[in-house]
Amino acid sequence: MRQLLQVCLACLTLSGCAFNSIFISYPLQIAPYKAQLSNDQASSQLAELAENIDTNDGLLYAQESGRIAQIYGDFESSKTYYERAISAYRDFDDRATISASDVGATASSIILNDNAIPYRGPGYERIMLHQYQALNYLLMGDPQGALVEVRRSNQLQASEQSRYQKSQDSVKAMANGTVNAEMKKLSRASGTVTSSFLNAYSYYTTGLLHELLGEPNDAFIDYRKAAQISPDNQFLQQDLVRLAKQMSMPQYDEFKKRWGDAKLPKAGQGQVIFMVERGFAPVKDSLTVPFTIDGNFQTASIPTYKPRSAPTSKTAISGLGTVLRADTIANIDALAYNALKEELPAILLRQAAHVAAKAEMNARANPDGKRYNQTSDAGAIAMQIFNVISEQADRRSWLTLPQQAQIARQFVDAGEYQVQVANAPATVVKVQPNRATLIWVIETGNHTRFYSIII
């Protein structure tokens, strides 16, 4: 028994981190911060959250800290936190050989759970990290820095396609009843979204920045990529028609026939562009299955998602003359569902290793099988309790991302407008001739924040 306890303690030591996500679910850790964002409370606990950046889940905590600071309008701190996350991703990319800490984390995950593995986010999180860093640069007055980040975002969308194909091969190789059932459930939940890395919101943001910063050809390419993913968005359609018309492109006639002619600005008008983010990304649930092996009680847990909530309605925007209704450009929750679906085969492989390792530990704690004596009985019971307590599904993900993103655009006369988005209090929007006013609207529960810049 003493040897078994030493093994367990060694695994905790090798994992090299605070025990946060190993025994306490990640959604439970982040819930207080989301509550503060929902009720417009001050970010009093942000420094406490950021202290975890040096732990096993450091990349995730850096992403959350950057996003929370960004929502509060502290773009400088957000930029610093995001840089930490970007650096962590690069460390993963540059790690040519498995380090001792990786070996320890892998060993710990077999005896404990997947939360002992250093967190490396799915593709859509990494792509959105660069998208949000670009917005930090833009709102801090550094458009060239913003362009660097959106180009990185585009490069990642291309590289993730190769990784996605490999994951699909794994899915086919592991096809069985359990895998297929979970795959079908996640596919139904994600709707028409077919992968975790094809993000129309990121492509749209990239295209928008290219256009606003005087690169219409690059903007057209990215808008077209976004339209291939989100083909029914009316504002995206109009952007393509308008750019094709302005640049006398051969696609103009085709686009005009499909979506109607472009609405061009009148002399002296400016434009108002809205990017509206609503809600929070979904929280992973846990699917736990109890069973016995050789009379010893065990459990196996894997992450899953509950069925998606009803689609969010179009956001009404008033105060600019006619009422605008922002149109969905991306459902971030659908990307999260697909990311879990792509990762499921690897999760199940690791789960099989958990079960085998813990069954062996149970057998060592009770070498006489059912013929217990006082010592072996106590050891077996203690080992079974440890197995149940330590069996936690990996529910980590970037939880302060939005559930959904919507866009809207309109040309209006120069001046000041009292603009109201949904039920939020009205805010003053300034429009200048031949300029664009970009308004970033972030709705988090019961509170909505506005950030704008004239470009």
Any descriptors?
TPR_rpt; 455 residues; 16 helices; TPR repeat; Serine Threonine Protein Phosphatase 5, Tetratricopeptide repeat; 17% strand; alpha+beta; globular; 8-stranded mixed sheet; TPR-like_helical_dom_sf
List the helices and strands and how they pair.
Layout: H1 2-14, H2 20-23, H3 26-38, H4 46-50, H5 58-71, H6 75-94, H7 100-111, H8 123-139, H9 143-173, H10 177-190, H11 200-212, H12 216-229, H13 234-246, H14 252-259, E1 269-278, E2 285-293, E3 296-304, E4 315-318, E5 324-331, H15 332-365, H16 374-390, E6 404-413, E7 415-421, E8 427-431, E9 436-444, E10 447-454
Parallel strand pairs: 1-9
Antiparallel strand pairs: 1-6, 2-3, 4-5, 4-7, 5-6, 7-8, 9-10
Q: Explain this structure to me?
A:
There is one protein chain. By secondary structure, the protein is α+β, with helices and mostly antiparallel strands. The protein has one domain (2-454): Tetratricopeptide repeat domain (Serine Threonine Protein Phosphatase 5, Tetratricopeptide repeat, Alpha Horseshoe). 53% of the residues lie in helices and 17% in strands. The chain is built from 16 helices and 10 strands. It has helices at residues 2-14, 20-23, 26-38, 46-50, 58-71, 75-94, 100-111, 123-139, 143-173, 177-190, 200-212, 216-229, 234-246, 252-259, 332-365, 374-390, and strands at residues 269-278, 285-293, 296-304, 315-318, 324-331, 404-413, 415-421, 427-431, 436-444, 447-454. The strands form 2 sheets. An 8-stranded mixed β-sheet has the order 8-7-4-5-6-1-9-10. A two-stranded antiparallel ribbon has the order 2-3. Residues 7-19, 96-111 and 371-375 have low confidence and may be disordered.
